[in-house]
Write a structure and sequence with these properties.
- The protein is mainly alpha-helical and about 100 residues long.
- It folds into 2 domains: about 1-40, no CATH class; about 45-80.
- Helix content is about 60%, strand content about 5%.
- The protein has a two-stranded antiparallel sheet with strand order 1-2.
- The longest helix has 24 residues, at about 55-80.
- The model has no long low-confidence stretch (mean pLDDT about 80).
Length: about 100
Amino acid sequence: MEKQQLTIKISPIVYHQLKSDVGKGKISEFIEGLVVRELGSSEKKIEQEYRECYANPRMIKEAKQWEKAEIKSWLNYEKNKSKPATVKWSKKLIKNGRKIN
C-alpha cells in the first residue's frame, strides 16, 4: 500500500525521546499504530455499523428494498444494452420562437 507523507511539529524533547525509545527508523510506524488505535480501525467501525443495521428490522427491510432495486436496474441494463438508443422527434419543431412543421 502506498503511504502518504504527513509533516507534524513536535517539541525537541518529545522527538529525542521518540528517537531513543522507539528508534529513528521506526517513528512513523509507531505513530501510525498509535493513531489507528486512537481512532479505531475502519474495519471495526464497518463491522459495528453492520451489527447495528441488522439489529434494526426497519433497516433490514430498507436494505432488501435497495438490493431488489439494484438487481432490477442491472437486469434492465443487461437486457437493453445491445439495443441502440432511439430518439423520438416531435412533429412540431420550434425555431426562434415559431413552430415549424
